[in-house]
Here is the input.
Amino acid sequence: MAFYTLGLTFNLVIFLTVIVLAVWIYGIYFNFKKWGLGSTGYHDQLRNSFWLFLATWIHEAFKDGLWVFLRTVVLDVLLLRRTLARSPVRWVMHMSMFYGFLMLAALSGLGLMIDIVEHFNLLGLSAEAEMAKELLSLPFDIFGYLLLIGATIAVSRRFLLKFVRDNTSAYDAFLIGAVFLITVTGFYAEWMRGNSFLIGNAFEYPIYAPHFALIHTVLAIGLFALILPWSKYIHVIATPMTLLANRGGE
Amino acid sequence: MADQKGSKPLMTGYMMSTQLMEVDGCNRCQECMKWCPTFAVRQDRPGITPMYKNARWRELMAKSQSLRAKIFGPKPLTDDEMKVFTEDTYSCTTCGVCGTVCEAGIKTVELWEAMRPNLVKRGDGPVGKQPFFPKLIKGDRNPYMAKQEDRLCWIPKDAKVLDSGDLFYFAGCTAAYRQQALGVATVRILNKLNVDFAMLGKDEWCCASALIRTGQREVMAEHAVHNIDALKDGGAKNVLFACAGCLRNAAVDWPMWYEGYIPYETMPLSVFLREKIRKGEVEYKIPLNYRFTYHDPCHNGRHLMHLKGKDWSFEAPRDVVQSIPGVKFQEMVRNRALQRCCGAGGGVKAGIPDLAMDCAMARVQDATDIQAEVICSTCPFCRLNLIDGRNTAKSPIKMVDIVEMMAASMGLDTTIPENPYTKFQSQDVLVCSPVECKLDTVERKEPGKDLVGEAH
Here is the structure.
């Protein structure tokens, strides 16, 4: 399908991808350097160093040994044990969004790799690459629905629960709203292509499908690569790192 | 409006780099807000909750450390915003329940205690009477303006207390000067059980908890090093604490200020006594026919559970209480790791007393809800604040320490010898005949005398 419309060429997309990744990586570096303004230990002297932040984090994360680190990765980062202990509903929401987003991001990366193989006919695998892309459509749908479930719970909680609603800031509303919007636009873009999982061709409109897909992509990249590292949404990175540094808070 | 102080950026020096990361790790799940004891009594001030404090810190730090600040230059911090943030940061009892429920696993107690010295250094904190702590503690080595020579003035003449030995009892300033019934009960029980123990006497300096809790660290090193050296010189291998605040400081804070080897173990007195009970060495004589509930002190519970284990932190004192004949025991709805703070901690009692009072009244209400007649605990400061809350709420509930309960039930004479501090005693006490014990209240005879007595 013709994805590269509206003047976008393959090379331009690759170039923009590199730019976005560079901004993302610099954003992470910027935050690590900011965190490096702290000390390396209790009432230790200041070092103000990106590298010493990393060293401090590694020291804290592995303080109780590799086994505790791995246990924290599995129980606290991957299974969100602490969230489950407090609220099963919130756990379902977080797990859906976490794995939905993570897998969609991974699948998108994989899709890009396959695109490159197809475009340059690397190793003569152009035809196989096209077939592989077709195979990705089902997992894309499944994890898309997972993300949609999580995003829907998140938005519903903010509307329906008074305590949660009263303490929702503009930041919260923007982040959750943006995630919801990106998810919905992603689905709609997929539906416009026709023959979609569960929907069939009810919303088929292939002429404008690439345009809508582009809107979805720009929104996703805008939020997760250009806004996330530069705003409070850095918690997407900082929270798992905190869990690891504090050995799950236990 | 920016002023001269406003030209200073937010200080970060007392925070570890991983703690700066923790601030950004808050995912605003709001769980802390549901449990925060100060927010529960100040619903109009969400700024005092951990989630909002983290958000505020981020905003203040962004004024000098964001991408915008790097490109266009830093913005000055204003007096007003720093005043609000300082009040919010000090309106926290550092009870740690937010850390217990935090989805991101943020170690909140350590985080607040690292934020505060930055505010102190910048000239924004501390608040209320808290600035008196360093001067008092450095000058008198206790927060009560009492004489160090009087540390053991309450010891009964027939009691046996050694100067050195394997086992030490670290009484703490409050048991020495303000709640001497606790000290007398402890000494009497240990003597009755034929336990040889030593005390530091005038070499026992304040644990300096108040300094750490309020971000005033300058005198802390002297006290930590002095107390550890004194215990080492005395030959200590095990040190018992009947004060939760002293125990937390000795177990968690002192070692961070001491560079040498520490040869002794720190132990809650309740754990030591439970062992004696289990071995059948404790003989009770008088039943305590009251409905009791147990209030977990934060310093002995949440603050220590990761270091000493939940059994030592939560179960040992309950086992002691329930071993006493006649006791009818019931838990409050919020107990153990999720208990509600009494409101005295973190310097709040001295810094923002009306907030401490409201928290205490909420905790007394927790006990009232289960029809408890007596709240027992292992922290003199919880007891002091809960008594104040009880008095304000005009509740008939009494507060006692579990050590005093044991001593009373064992039929021990816990009369406090007359001493220069007798007039400052303010506590509920158990008055026993050979067949029964009654709870009585000793009113503080010189109210308001303590300048910053509420030091933890």
